[in-house]
Design a protein that fits this description.
Oligomer: single chain
CATH superfamily: NAD(P)-binding Rossmann-like Domain
CATH class: Alpha Beta
Order of helices and strands: HEEEHHHEEEHEEEEHE
Strand order of the largest sheet: 1-4-7-11-9
Structural class: alpha/beta
Number of domains: 1
Shape: globular
Number of helices: 6
CATH topology: Rossmann fold
CATH architecture: 3-Layer(aba) Sandwich
Largest sheet: 5 strands, mixed
Distance between the termini: 39 Å
Number of strands: 11
Amino acid sequence: MYSDEMKDYNLQKLRVIDVELLDPAQCKLIVESIDSVVFCATDFNNNAPRSVSSLNLAFLYRAVASPDKGRVEIEGLTNILGALKQSKLNRKKVAMLTNEESSSSALQGPNDPISVVLVSVSPNIFGEYETPFGEFNAIKREGEKILSDNFPSLSYTILQMGMYEDNFVGESLDILFEKVTKKDTDGTENKEKRRRKINRRDAARAVSDALLDDELEGKTVEVWTALRG
């Protein structure tokens, strides 16, 4: 329930919709007329599938009854990106018909927020975990590659988060960003990166800030909290 304590967050404007990301039709419906998407959906608890780690009967049933239905990180992301691209194309066509000055084929205006912020995880945080659909880190990297390579008309930022930690990592500390290079993506970097953590609220702040940060556009960055002391 909305309360006065949360008024600064404008939650009175929030609408919650239950959607099946593996259904292209539902994805098309929820992104209609949307400018930006923050994609942080996952089939995992840490690096273990939800159907295994949480013993959630719904997830377990889906995994057993429909093993080929797909993965949120891959097929679900692809559905959302395809729907967002089509929505932007449709609006672009309307603009071109009503305003000759809007004849550019670009889907990104000069003052628009980044189209997609993909919340991922650093390859250094979790160990390898084999699932029926592939290894955990490989699935995460495949989703990132789909965004960067298969949808060039959508501006994007990929945030590889450190380990979420609310008990021992303070809130509102400085957030650090480090650009990921090809050398980093195999997860063989030094042990120091494995200790990187971030408070969940700061992770949310980093995501919202990334939408308007031109310096992060088109980049994959690791994100973590700078610890004091």
